[in-house]
Amino acid sequence: MDWQATELNNAWRYAFMALIRDSPAHRDAQALAQGVAGWHRHMGILDAQLQRTGAYAAGADFTLADIVLGLSTQRWMATPMVRPPLPAVAAYYERLSARPGFLQHGRNGIP
């Protein structure tokens, strides 16, 4: 959870503010490209972890870490941008989407 709060959140901040919030302070094309690349790189780290665990962030069982990482995954999936193929993240997103709570609070149409 610390990684999500300090590393992953910082990676997506500029891109999210530019692409979702349409913030006037976040219109620098180079900073946006760097932000998107950093976001993808961090999601690649999550993809590698999910490949190791095979299901959820910490292993076979859903844990508290999956709440915060699931919300970050929802944000990544719902942001209008070209994403690299990350098959473990895509499978994780589908597993989370089978959970009613995630559909209500995560995959609810809001990035």
From TrEMBL:
Listed name of the protein: Glutathione S-transferase
Keyword Transferase attached: yes
GO MF entries: transferase activity
Pfam families: GST_C_2
Domain GST C-terminal span(s) in chain numbering: 1-111
Keyword Secreted tagged: no
Organism expressing this protein natively: Xanthomonas graminis pv. phlei
Superkingdom of origin: Bacteria
Keyword terms of this UniProt record: Transferase
